[in-house]
Amino acid sequence: MRELGKFLVMIGAVVLLLGGILWSGFAPKWLGRLPGDIRIEREHSAFYFPVVTCIIISVVLSLLFSIFRR
Question: In Å, how far from its chain's centre is CA 9?
């Protein structure tokens, strides 16, 4: 059970570090601006939904979790 606790603390630290990097503005410029992401801009409003970015992040996380599960 101690191994699981250590693993969860490590995952939490990695998520905290990545969140801080993305929040501070050091994120890659392509993140959220891939072809297929929906962006509608009008005079007084804007709508943005990063569909392709969400799919890519989901696939990468699924692969990582499947590797760690083994």
Answer: 19
Element (H, E) at 56: helix 51-69
d(Cα 20, Cα 17) in Å, to the nearest integer?
5
Can you give the pLDDT at residue 42? Answer: 93
Tokens of 9: 């603390």
Higher-confidence position of 42 and 32: 42
Of 11, 15, 13, nearest in space to 68 by CA: 11
Tokens of 5: 């606790």
Residue of 50, 46, 57, 56 lying closest to 36 (CA atoms)? 50
